[in-house]
Amino acid sequence: MRRIEKTVFLSYRRTNFFGALAIFQHLTQHGYDVFMDYTGIASGDFESIILENVRTRAHFLVLLTPSALERCGEPGDWLRREIETALDTKRNIVPLMLEGFDFGTPAIANQLTGKLAVLKQYNAMGVPAEYFDAAMEKLREKYLNVALDSVAHPASPTARQAASEQKAAAAAAPAVAEEELTAEGYFERAFNATDPDEKIRLYSQAIRLKPDYAAAFCNRGVARKAKGDLHGAMQDFEEAIRLKADFAEAFYNRGNARKARGDLEGALVDYDQAIRLQPDDPDVFYNRAIARSAKGALEGAIADYNQAIRLKPDFAAAFNNRGDARYKKGDLKGALQDFDEAICLKPDYANAFFNRAIACMAKGDLEGAAQDFNKAVELKPGFVEAVSSRDAVRKAIAEQSKR
Question: Which of 116, 133, 219, 304 is least surrounded by CB atoms within 10 angstroms?
Answer without folding.
Answer: 133
